[in-house]
């Protein structure tokens, strides 16, 4: 149905995102002018493999009948898996190694300096810099004008990736749902806020690396409120997550999402961060907006 729809529209280009893997993904029925594999982290290991190489090998299954693949990762195991597919690797981390970036905590944009051109990227975060370079290179490879890229980069919207839900108080929703995602979120928070200025509302799926994620959260927030995803088969309640926390000072359980939010606001912090799972963010929006 999707392919028929795209055909009816007569599109010049379609960006197809694979599901969890790549090699056996339904999108793999298509041939491509370009393939993109930004980077790989240890996630979905029970399905894709327990090493970076094995996971990258699954992802690399999308590379076929094309001579170019754009990547943004310098991990040797990742690059080994990609290179075995015999395509030309365009690594934006190498190609644009002299490019600089800066996070603007006033406008919440990522300022990117490519030397000859400067871009105000509407998505906020250190990792969004790599995402920008990847998308930029794809657009260049397809012959898209740089002025169009510049205008478009200022208007990109991506829900639940450092999404500013409201400004007063400042509430940020971020789908950091694994250790790698949480590390990237923490990297942003550390640059703009002290730990005493941050309160986190979180719930994490029980099949994730909960302990390591909690350890990262503790470095950026003096206060954490644990809430429930018990209605989800992969979820659990706040008490079960709280038990896995080593340093419990300043942390509390409130399984009711609305009450957790009211409690977070009562702390009068500079920023409230809702994170840990996309299911947590979905529940937050449904219950708070509802």
Description:
The protein is of the alpha/beta class and 290 residues long. It contains 12 helices and 12 strands. The strands form 3 sheets. The chain has a 6-stranded mixed β-sheet with strand order 7-8-12-9-10-11, sandwiched between helices. Strands 1-2-3 form a 3-stranded parallel β-sheet. A hairpin with a 4-residue loop joins strand 5 and strand 6 (118-121). Helix 3 (52-59) packs parallel to helix 4 (76-83) and helix 8 packs parallel to helix 9. It is globular. The protein starts with a helix and ends with a helix.
Overall mean pLDDT stands at 92
How many β strands by DSSP?
A: 12
Q: Looking across the biggest beta sheet, what order are the strands in?
A: 7-8-12-9-10-11
| Largest sheet properties | 6 strands, mixed
For the record, give the distance between the C-alpha atoms at the N and C termini, rounded to a whole number: 32 Å
As a whole number of angstroms, the C-alpha radius of gyration is: 20 Å
Globally, the shape reads globular
Please write the string of helix (H) and strand (E) elements: HEHHEHEHEEEHHEEHEHEHEHEH
Q: Any low-confidence stretches, pLDDT <50, length ≥5?
A: none
Write the layout of secondary structure elements.
Blueprint: H1 2-9, E1 35-37, H2 45-48, H3 52-59, E2 68-71, H4 76-83, E3 88-91, H5 92-95, E4 100-104, E5 109-113, E6 118-121, H6 126-141, H7 146-153, E7 163-167, E8 170-173, H8 179-192, E9 198-202, H9 210-220, E10 223-226, H10 238-243, E11 251-253, H11 257-266, E12 271-275, H12 278-289
Parallel strand pairs: 1-2, 2-3, 8-12, 9-10, 9-12, 10-11
Antiparallel strand pairs: 4-5, 5-6, 7-8
Helix pairs in contact: 3-4, 8-9
